[in-house]
Write a structure and sequence with these properties.
Chain A: This is LPS export ABC transporter periplasmic protein LptC. The structure holds two protein chains of two kinds. Chain A is of the alpha+beta class. Chain A is built from one helix and nine strands. Chain A has one domain: Sandwich (lipopolysaccharide transport protein A fold). Chain A has one helix at residues 2-34, and strands spanning 49-60, 63-76, 81-93, 98-110, 116-126, 131-140, 145-156, 159-169, 174-185. By secondary structure, chain B is mainly β. In chain B, a hairpin with a 2-residue loop joins strand 8 (96-99) and strand 9. Classes of the chains: A alpha+beta, B mainly beta. Chain A binds chain B through residues 97, 126, 128, 130, 156-159, 161, 163, 172-189, and chain B through 6-22, 26, 28, 48, 50, 52-57, 84.
């Protein structure tokens, strides 16, 4: 008789454990459904805001001066810098100067000064046919000037120029090469 | 190879360069060396003007310590204007052309790039002067 009671007690405990297990599974399942899978990428520590297809337009007295776009912009509030990737800058020229389009692998846009550092395979192309290339170029907003201390190569119909260090004034399209200049002018524009 | 120097590419080296893409001028400054074919021009400052759809060089103006070296000939002056189409350089500011041992001076010298020829013009104060060494190496070759 004593064994039979033990057996009954064992069955009781077993039943309680089994029902607890069932309840726990149900609750866990429910929690899983309630909390959606997080699809947003986890941001690196220094990035406060990350934007896709970033686009910024700078105007002065209602006239569009330049536009800046990038595939991605990671903004760091403390440094007040937006770190851009696959950058495209379009400088609009007054008085029929036409557009100057500059592309680069990466960029840094300083929101305070509106200066831009363009880094990696920097290529400039004007609607008038001439262009330049350099490893790195800085846009100094206060002076509407592109500036670099690197070796620059400039090409135009009929000529190729090279030098170390450049100052390019985007509103007048005048530019200076600061050192070690070499130039080739082909007659007949070949 | 004389005869078509002015059609060759014009290669320039200098310390600095200022260009104006709208006015189509390029100002080279500091130890400027310009080469075209077998001619080399040295000067302190060189202004290149270009025009037309192909940006053809229309004029090259040299300022300060102008020196032109081409095979046996050498010309000097304070200022020079090169017209690539006419293939000639007009030199002033005590211009002088030396060919071997022969020397010619005057007020203005027109130096022909594709020919062994120069034309010397006198002025009120500068008469044409020529020192020709008969029987010298350059017999028959005009400076």
């Amino acid at each position: 008789m004593h064994n039979f009671n033990n057996f009954k007690r064992f069955l009781g405990i077993l039943a309680v454990v089994a029902s607890l297990l069932v309840i726990a599974t149900i609750v866990f399942r429910m929690q899983q459904e309630v909390a959606p899978k997080l699809s947003v990428r986890k941001l690196p520590l220094q990035v406060d805001v990350s934007l896709q297809n970033f686009h910024y337009t700078e105007t002065k007295q209602g006239i569009k001066r330049w536009e800046l776009s990038a595939e991605r912009a990671d903004y760091n509030k403390q440094a007040d810098i937006s770190y851009l990737s696959r950058v495209r800058m379009v400088v609009h020229g007054a008085g029929g100067l036409g557009e100057l389009v500059i592309t680069a692998d990466r960029g840094e846009y300083r929101n305070g000064t509106r200066d831009i550092a363009l880094v990696g395979n920097v290529q400039g192309k004007s609607s008038k046919g001439y262009g330049f290339s350099a490893p790195r170029v800085n846009y100094v907003a206060a002076r509407s000037m592109l500036q670099t201390s690197e070796r620059v190569r400039l090409t135009d119909i009929g000529s190729e120029l090279e030098g170390t260090g450049m100052e390019y004034y985007t509103q007048t399209r005048k530019f200076r090469l600061l050192k070690d200049v070499s130039a080739v002018y082909r007659q007949g524009g070949k | 190879a004389q005869g078509s120097n002015n059609k060759e590419p014009l290669k320039i080296k200098s310390d600095t360069l200022n260009t104006d893409n709208e006015k189509k001028t390029a100002i080279f400054e500091g130890k400027v060396v310009a080469r075209q074919g077998d001619m080399t021009l040295y000067t302190d400052r060189l202004v290149v003007s270009y025009n037309g759809p192909n940006n053809e060089v229309s004029q090259v103006e040299a300022f300060g310590n102008v020196r032109i070296v081409q095979e046996e000939r050498q010309a000097t002056g304070a200022h020079g204007v090169y017209d690539p189409k006419l293939a000639r350089i007009i030199l002033d500011g005590n211009p002088k052309v030396v060919s071997g041992e022969d020397v010619v001076t005057g007020r203005i010298i027109t130096y022909y790039v594709n020919e062994q020829k120069s034309v010397v013009t006198s002025g009120p104060k500068e008469r044409v002067e020529a020192v020709i060494h008969p029987g010298g190496k350059n017999v028959g070759a005009k400076p």
